[in-house]
UniProtKB/TrEMBL annotation:
This is PilZ domain-containing protein. It comes from Croceicoccus ponticola. The lineage of its organism: Bacteria, Pseudomonadati, Pseudomonadota, Alphaproteobacteria, Sphingomonadales.
Length: 116
């Protein structure tokens, strides 16, 4: 599948999955915080959180749904959005697992994340 850029400034060549996923911050100033992931790929994700005040260069460990923890570096921030890159790309098997997991009902996944 060919990636459809969000704007002319978007120069990515790999497909990013857009949807609603949940993640939990496992380290740093926001440890234990649950956040929404609105886009992810093998190499990173876009997080939406209105209260995280991180900066480019910050690092945290992230559990995306039931995958991780992964080391994520903050690449950019814009309003309530944070762009993070994973230090180790996700494998094809992990990506397949995430896609299968995200086919499950949103309410069920949210309840599982909150109970961890």
């Amino acid at each position: 599948m060919t990636y459809k850029p969000l704007s002319e400034l978007d120069t990515r060549t790999r497909h990013r999955w857009r949807g609603m996923a949940f993640a939990r911050i496992q380290s740093g100033a926001y440890v234990g915080r649950c956040v929404s992931v609105v886009e992810f790929s093998e190499t990173g994700c876009r997080v939406r959180d209105h209260t995280m005040a991180c900066e480019e260069g910050d690092m945290f460990h992230l559990v995306l749904e039931d995958v991780g923890p992964m080391v994520a570096d903050v690449r950019w921030t814009y309003g309530a959005f944070i762009g993070a890159s994973f230090r180790q790309p996700l494998t094809a098997l992990v990506m397949e697992h995430l896609h299968t997991r995200l086919d499950q009902p949103l309410q069920m996944r949210m309840a599982q994340m909150m109970n961890r």
